[in-house]
Design goal:
Chain A: GO terms for molecular function: peptidase activity. The complex is a heterodimer of chains A (442) and B (182). Helix content of chain A is 75%, strand content 0%. Chain A is mainly α. In chain A, helix 6 crosses helix 13. Chain A is globular and about 70 Å long. Chain B has 182 residues and is an alpha+beta fold. In chain B, strands 3-4-5-9-8-7-6 form a seven-stranded antiparallel sheet. Chain B has a three-stranded antiparallel sheet with strand order 1-2-10, with no helix packed on it. Classes of the chains: A mainly alpha (442), B alpha+beta (182).
Chain lengths: 442, 182
């Protein structure tokens, strides 16, 4: 059953289902799902190695380059996904499992599934239809199903860790990221095979640019995050009727399928006409709505979760634990980052470190409070330790002359994150445009 | 742990495993069970146009054929996740000119593909050609041009799935069978 946060009547009171404190990772070993998951990962890993062994034997340099490039490409995505859930961080092992499902299981099982369904489509409808619409019809069904099964497996192994819609998005995105990385490696190797010019890294680099930058932002990471939100909604919102929860699940899975379908569809596949601008516009028209939808969903999920946990700190009414302005800062990622920068401006790197420490301790206390039904008054040792940690970190901050972990009062009216986001979007468009132009000239 | 939860957990995990097995083994079995329709290309030499012939890739389906004259026509094969188009048209010029024409056509039509440097290619029957490759966010591809007396033979291969390698082997074998007047 979902625990209500103390701020009763607020829309986020059912947004989180706190992990019981008694939950231990080792208890998963007693679950049959854990061993079945381990077996699936093992056999899929073997299958993936088998699939890579042939290209590696023929194109060792290209294969190694592809693996290294796309592994490095995954790093910023991983860091971004991990940082999505600042207040209640996910266990790294479970995050790695989600990534491994996408990379090992979903990819290797999608290949025969896609191939068979494409052939069935060609036989039962028409080869012409299969050529045009096959990738749009087949891949979203097979691949989104296989990735969603990964999240179902995570739920079976560690259900208590899926506390909120945000958690579902985190695990879903990681499954998608794993899939995207391995799929891109295979695309790169296909390009090497197509080039038919031996063990050259040129086609790998070209694929890295094309699939990484032109198609990377709105690919599997994004599709699976939506599906993850739907699955997590079904699990977390137990106060709602089964029908409503099932509808939420269906909407999440449908949206994941729909954005994948639109991206794969032949519509606007080659842009709005000849020339780079047409191609760029076509890419943006297909990709931006999906990206905007997921970012909006992420914004809502993050704030609902943050408000839920912070409401426990609000209830303490203890400015030594968190002042009102700190509570406001803690709920917003860009304000937290600004508070650390502001501290660095005033007290150097130790100031930044002290504020970060306080923020993390406050987040930890909030999460522990949500897991303790009787709160601090019951003399709970874990809670007292968490509160003491906050007080110690505050005293370290005070020694540096920092009274509050808040954002600068002189910060620009438009949040830095918005400016950076617009800048990054323009830079990306410029990069895509440059890429399209230079490739046309090739 | 409560016993019924253990069994429920087992049932859930087995359901996931079952779904995976259906995708990996069930769908291919279903595909094999559905009879191949008349669109399937028999493994025997087919004329495209103007006396240019090819042996279709094994297991390929013919998606489209067109004939706009005795010396002009095309055929589109579907081989798993790959499509293989072969077009024949009257042409007066040399091989580099034919190659350049197809390359320009691909670049202007597709907009953002990359073409690698061209390489020479020869079919089993002795037709000489030039080939190169391209790649895009959603697909990779290869094209080739061969010359026969008064004719240009254009071949384009594209695919959008991660497991194209098997299909490519079959397509390469098919390209090697392109012949004129045999």
């Amino acid at each position: 059953m979902t625990t209500s946060a103390p701020a009763g009547g607020r829309p986020w009171r059912f947004s989180v289902r706190p992990t019981p404190r008694a939950t231990r990772a080792l208890s998963s070993l007693q679950l049959p799902a854990f061993w079945i998951l381990a077996g699936i990962l093992f056999f899929s890993g073997m299958r993936l190695l088998d699939l890579l062994s042939s290209p590696f034997a023929r194109f060792p340099a290209a294969t190694t380059t592809a693996i290294i490039l796309f592994a490095l490409y995954a790093v910023p995505f991983w860091l971004f996904i991990a940082s999505m859930d600042f207040l209640e961080r996910e266990p790294p092992l479970l995050m790695a499992t989600a990534f491994a499902w996408g990379a090992l299981v979903a990819t290797t099982t999608a290949m025969p599934g896609n191939r068979a369904m494409l052939a069935l489509l060609a036989k039962t409808v028409s080869p012409d239809y299969a050529v045009a619409w096959g990738p749009a019809v087949v891949s979203p069904i097979i691949e989104e199903l296989l990735k969603a099964l990964g999240l179902v497996m995570i739920v079976l192994v560690a259900r208590k860790q899926i506390n909120s819609v945000l958690d579902g998005m985190v695990y879903g995105a990681l499954i998608g990221l794993g899939f995207q990385v391995v799929e891109n490696v295979f695309y790169a190797l296909n390009a090497v095979e197509m080039a038919n010019s031996g063990d050259k890294v040129g086609p790998v680099v070209a694929t890295f640019f094309l699939r990484g930058f032109l198609a990377g932002l709105w690919s599997h990471t994004l599709f699976s995050a939506v599906a993850g939100a739907g699955i997590a909604w079904f699990i977390v919102r137990t106060e709602k009727s089964l029908l409503i929860r099932s509808l939420g699940l269906a909407v999440g899975l449908f949206l994941a399928w729909a954005v994948h379908f639109i991206w794969n569809s032949p519509l606007l596949a080659d842009g709005l006409g000849r020339g780079g601008w047409g191609v760029l516009t076509g890419l943006l028209l297909k990709g931006i709505p999906a990206l905007a939808m997921v970012m909006a969903l992420l914004w809502v999920a993050r704030h609902r979760e943050a408000n839920y946990y912070i409401s426990y700190l609000v209830q303490l009414r203890d400015p030594k634990v968190a002042t009102e302005r700190e509570l406001h800062t803690l709920g917003h990622g860009h304000l937290r980052a600004d508070a650390r920068r502001y501290a660095k401006d005033r007290a150097g790197k130790p100031g930044k470190k002290a504020v970060r420490g306080l923020q993390m301790a406050q987040a930890h206390l909030a999460v522990e409070l949500s897991r303790a039904p009787f709160g601090l008054t019951a003399g709970d040792a874990v809670l007292l330790h968490a509160r003491d940690d906050v007080l110690i970190r505050r005293s370290r901050m005070l020694k540096l002359g920092l009274t509050e972990a808040i954002a600068s009062p002189l910060r620009p009216a438009v949040p830095r994150v918005v400016v950076l986001g617009i800048g990054a979007a323009l830079f990306l468009c410029g990069l895509i445009w440059f890429g399209i132009s230079s490739m046309n000239a090739a | 742990m409560v016993v019924h939860r253990w069994w429920r957990n087992l049932a859930g995990a087995l359901s996931v495993l079952g779904a995976l097995l259906i995708v990996v083994f069930g769908l291919p079995a279903l595909d094999r069970a559905v009879p191949v329709n008349p669109d399937a290309a028999a493994a025997q030499r087919r004329e495209v146009a103007g006396g240019v012939t090819v042996v279709p890739p094994s297991g390929a389906l013919i998606a489209k054929t067109s004939r706009s004259g005795p010396r002009e026509g095309s055929i589109l094969f579907l081989i798993g996740p790959a499509r293989f188009v072969m077009a024949v048209a009257p042409f007066k010029g040399d091989l580099p000119t034919a190659y350049s024409g197809l390359k320009t056509k691909i670049q202007s039509m597709r907009g953002y593909q990359v073409t690698a440097d061209e390489a020479r290619i020869v079919t089993k029957s002795g037709l000489h050609g030039l080939t190169a490759s391209f790649t895009a966010p959603g697909r990779t591809g290869r094209f080739a041009v061969f010359l026969a007396p008064g004719l240009a033979i254009e071949v384009t291969v594209t695919g959008s799935e991660a497991d194209l390698a098997q299909a490519l082997l079959r397509i390469d074998e098919s390209i090697a069978t392109i012949a004129y007047g045999n």
